[in-house]
Amino acid sequence: MKMDVSLCKTLGNFRFATEFALEGSRIGIFGPSGSGKSTLMHLLAGLHKPDQGSIRIDGETLFDDTQRISLSPEKRRIGVVFQQAHLFPHMGVRQNLLYGYRRIPKRQRKIDPQALIAVLGLESLLGRNVTSLSGGERQRVALGRTVLSCPRLILMDEPLNGLDEGLKYQIIPYLKRVFDEFDIPLLFISHSLNEMRLMTDEVLEFQAGQLIGHTTAEDLARRRMGNSQVGYINLLPLGEYRQIGDLHAYSWGNQELVLSVSGEGAAGMFELSSKDITLFKRHPEASSARNLLRCRVTKLFGAGNRVGVEMECGGQPLVAQVVGEAVDDLGLVPGRELVAVIKASAFRRLY
Amino acid sequence: MFDFTPTDWQAMELSARVALTATLAALPFGFAAAYLLVFSRLPGKALFDGLMNLPLVLPPVVVGYLLLLLLGRNGWLGGLLEELGIRIIFTWKAAVLASMVVGFPLLVRSIRTGMEGIDLRLIQASRTLGARWYDSLFTIVLPLSGRAILAGASLMFARSLGEFGATIIIAGNIPGVTQTIPLAIYDYTGAPGGEGMALGLCLVSIALAFAVLIFNQMMVKRLEREHPQ
């Protein structure tokens, strides 16, 4: 998708002004609350009218004040998934899902409802009343409803915000599957770095109504390491597991990681902070930590007064953080072999 | 018990007919007015709002007199209708019109309150899903205002049953033609020995109004069960 946007909008004391051109299919809009992310979404979808500017997607002009073009929301074919699902309360799940589908011309119906319902795991919910759904289920139905309207682009406005902390990430695999399977460009709005890294390839960073950077979520995460309490979050896709006593050993690349996560073990995405990785020059004789991994330093990067150590562990990337003095003590340079020590309890399952 | 005369029965039947007709006829206008007040960005909205609520605070007699000026033989609308062979003044249609005007603010207020409770995002969601504004209006706004429409309609119906001041001015008090329950009661109170019959019609009035309120409550409860919001 190609997008060419130049927009200006004043709302009370808040002034939103931006200009960008980009090409991609997984784009993140990142920034703190009040940075103008939602304003951008409303302007793109045609729910608010810009004071001036233009919006062009794949060569088609959706808005241009100089040419007096302003397509109404239903003509823009831009789907929106709101923060709260905003399902129609007077309709059942099936009616909600098909609301948009029934309103598009037959030739535009590129997505088969049955296929989508299967991907989102909604079969058992079809006959239900929307008021009886859980937060995650509602959000899945809202996504399905938007996808079935076969839009040229989907805007998601903090879709995980309304969900419980523990269940938040469980919807991510559904999102990924839908966007992989049906090939719809996505503009994902969030203030969560983890969500950005899981869902997007490139990121537009907003602050106080202005675009301040065009980067990647990975890059943002590394920059943040310097001033964040939680450090850099390693996102680890872990595969098959076996039980060792009350611990789980998950396969990770060509090695294993030992985790003490509660509940049923299954393949999934786990997070590990760069702060929870201790680096040793040589293999320690014994350690209370359950993971001692041989790694090779690939790159060092600075972030604030900390140094990020990018390593390669059995074919997998891993980022640890150290303070400047440790760089000298360990003789950290690219190519250096190290042992990374990680406690089994340092991992947290995302989904 | 009360021995109602045929004209009393006619008054009851006419009251019900006038109230029902006035309510049904006012519904589309009431819905449109509420929609404009809630969702549109009309420049003269405050003025429109004031005009809409005026009959609520004006003496009904004033409303009746203004309608008489408008619809009388010398009024501009009355003259026009006369040419077309339509007569409204002093017919039951005039009673309907009087009830419509006097009860309209109650209907609009009630629907408006309901509409203001609709999350704007639901309408926005329907628009981004490909619904045009009128499609949104009929598939989202109308069903979600159902409860409020019903509440407003029953309120207006009850108000119409009691309409007196405007009705007596433009419809007169003609037994069997334009005499509704309140007008019949008025007649009885002025006639010697009519107190008993007046009381009887009062009780009928109370029973009717009460039945409407109970029906209203039942419908509202049922809708609440079906579509909790």
Give a written overview of the molecule.
The complex is a heterodimer of chains A (351) and B (229). Chain A is an alpha+beta fold. Chain A is 21% helix and 38% strand. A 6-stranded mixed β-sheet of chain A has the order 7-8-9-3-10-11, sandwiched between helices. A 5-stranded antiparallel β-sheet of chain A has the order 2-1-4-5-6, covered by helices on one side. A 5-stranded antiparallel β-sheet of chain A has the order 17-21-18-19-20. In chain A, helix 7 packs antiparallel against helix 8. Chain A is globular, with a radius of gyration of 23 Å. The mean pLDDT of chain A is 92. Chain B has a single domain (6-223), classed as MetI-like fold, CATH 1.10.3720. Chain B has helices spanning 6-39, 45-57, 60-71, 76-83, 92-116, 120-128, 133-144, 146-161, 165-170, 181-190, 195-226. The longest helix of chain B has 34 residues, at 6-39. Chain B is globular and about 70 Å long. Chain B starts with 5 loop residues before the first helix and ends with a helix. Classes of the chains: A alpha+beta (351), B mainly alpha (229).
Q: Brief overview, please?
A:
The complex is a heterodimer of chains A (351) and B (229). With 351 residues, chain A is an alpha+beta fold.
Key features of this structure:
heterodimer, A: 351 residues, alpha+beta, OB fold (Dihydrolipoamide Acetyltransferase, E2P), 2 domains, six-stranded mixed sheet, five-stranded antiparallel sheet, 9 helices
Find the CATH superfamily of the largest domain in chain A.
P-loop containing nucleotide triphosphate hydrolases
The helix-strand sequence of chain B is: HHHHHHHHHHH
The global form of chain B is globular
- Tally the helices of chain B: what do you get? 11
Query: CATH topology of the largest domain in chain A, what is it called?
Result: Rossmann fold
- The CATH topology assignment of chain B is MetI-like fold
Overall pLDDT level of chain B:
90
Distance between the termini of chain A: 29 Å
Mean pLDDT metric of chain A: 92
Largest sheet of chain B: none
- Using only C-alpha atoms, the radius of gyration of chain A works out to 23 Å
Radius of gyration of chain B, taken over Cα atoms and rounded to an integer in Å: 20 Å
Our estimate of the beta-strand percent of chain A is 35-45%
Strand order of the largest sheet of chain A: 7-8-9-3-10-11
Low-confidence stretches of chain B: none
Question: What's the CATH class of the largest domain in chain A, please?
Answer: Alpha Beta
Compute the number of helices of chain A: 9
Q: Name the structural class of chain A.
A: alpha+beta
Number of domains of chain A: 2
What is the 3D shape of chain A? globular
